[in-house]
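R.M. (postdoc): so does anyone remember the format we settled on? I'll just put the structure tokens first.
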């Protein structure tokens, strides 16, 4: 009986202690929302600071080939992340980037479990496909200021989806305060 009473007191004390710790955490975490943060809702920042390019294609792979557990995986995604050389450019008062793209075997990003398709095989597949597609099916990502948004101009492809970068592309970055700045992306194929 005495053990039961002690056990109930211990559980009650633990519960109160957990509630107290939880309250302290809530108050301590909340305070950072009100101090030393810059006000972004009226920010005039509209910078584009970086651009990245990749290419993706589908392939089929066989896992545990030749065993009882052999499994064929269809439609696996291989991503190729280009090596790049970036120069700042200005054309007709519009700033931007001129990016020269190259690739090597190490550009191949093979995800998932290893199967019978090697990195070398994927690189050969990629070289055949990129010879046909050139810069017409690239995935492009840019870094812009916090609280800003980016919009394509003059028929430029939406960023983050495959698009045609065979010609110069223009984008507008809109700051949180509504001010804008246009940018140009020049993409050069060095392969």
């Amino acid at each position: 009986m005495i053990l039961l009473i002690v056990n109930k007191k211990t559980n009650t004390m633990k519960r109160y202690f957990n509630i107290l710790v939880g309250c302290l955490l809530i108050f301590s975490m909340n305070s950072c929302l009100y101090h030393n943060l810059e006000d972004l809702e009226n920010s005039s920042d509209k910078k584009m600071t970086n651009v990245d390019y990749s290419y993706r294609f589908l392939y089929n792979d066989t896992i545990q080939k030749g065993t009882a557990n052999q499994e064929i995986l269809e439609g696996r995604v291989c991503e190729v992340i280009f090596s790049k050389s970036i120069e700042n450019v200005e054309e007709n008062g519009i700033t931007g980037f001129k990016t020269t793209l190259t690739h090597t075997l190490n550009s191949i990003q093979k995800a998932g479990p290893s199967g019978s398709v090697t990195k070398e095989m994927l690189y050969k597949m990629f070289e055949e496909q990129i010879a046909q597609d050139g810069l017409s099916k690239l995935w492009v990502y840019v870094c812009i200021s916090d609280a800003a948004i980016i919009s394509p101009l003059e028929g430029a492809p939406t960023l983050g989806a495959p698009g045609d970068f065979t010609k110069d592309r223009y984008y507008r970055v809109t700051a949180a305060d509504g001010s804008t700045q246009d940018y140009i992306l020049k993409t050069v194929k060095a392969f």
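R.M.: ...and that's the designed sequence above, right after the tokens. Also worth knowing: DSSP finds two helices and ten strands in the chain. The longest helix spans residues 2-31.
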